[in-house]
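Worked example 2:
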Amino acid sequence: MKIAFVIDKTQTFQIIAGVLYEALYRNHDCTLFCNFSPKELGFFGSPKASPNLINDPNLRWVQHSDKNWLINKVATERSQYDAVVGINLFNKGWKPLYQNQNPGNYSLEYCWNEIYNQVKPFSSSTTLFCNSETSKKIISDLSSYDMLETYGSPWFDFLSLCKALRENYNHTVVTVLAPHNSFYIKSPELNKGFDQILRKVVSWCNQNNAKMVLKTREKYLNNAKNKFGTVISDKDASSHLHLYASSDVVINFCSSAINELAFLEVPYLCLGNDLQKQLHTDRIHHPGIQRIHKSYYSGDIFDGIHCDVLDSREMLSDKIVQKIESLIQSQKDWRSFQETHFPGNHQGAAIRILDRIEQDNVKLNQAPGDV
């Protein structure tokens, strides 16, 4: 089969990695359309096919800085491929690729994007492979789109393999994920609360042979960077996963990174879940935000063992230290946590998804009367 894989920035590589590796292992002719060069994959190479994707004879790279150029190129050349595997099904920028009746189009659920961007009606023959039974139900409820399947998440399975990236340092690592600017827009006083959090965490780190690391993002404008000895971005595909895997606890503002943390098996503390619930009340994203809040940022998921929460009112209190210590020291059962909050059979998901794509291709090419 000839398969086109379509993503954009480096962070999205991990979404399609498992299916791409499996396709290469089966000697399919693959083309990867993306915004980055092969060297920006960092240390990622295929565990089954060649050790380095740059040199894999079955993989062709098409790189361009403009995501729209990539999408339109694949859409224009669609007849050259037996199947197309992409991301961001409901995103309007991907309309040329998905909003048609071409058979053999597939999309992998990416973080919360399909929950945020759901629209109805949405006309497409694209099959969306959802990450979990939970996200499948949310997307179905919000969009009424019926081309939804779940064979487990190849992303979650890939992340579980990335646990091996963990480095055992002689000190504790506390990683702080920079908040999205939408939090500051919603609550300008957040600067004060976040500054207090950082002061308390720095003090705790100094007393406990710990290191505080900032994982930043381009949309982050806060001037708190000078409080961190180390700042890491997600410019390449692997550095932030290596950071998360090597962390003892991660502090975040209700980030979709909790998907990564749950399967890298790193405890996390969510800040400002009350603010997250109020974001984008006037936009299409809001119904999705409400459902995400209900499933992932409220209730039983905050067990104080695998994850915990500080709402905006508590950020000026001393609870942060107590919660960090509890998350680091508590005895974990990550398998049960994953099964409860991210349900699905994720191990081997890429194999099952590619089996499905191959079966569809056989049916498409079957002559009338063939058995």
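Residues 1 and 28 are 5 Å apart (CA to CA). The chain has a mean pLDDT of 89.
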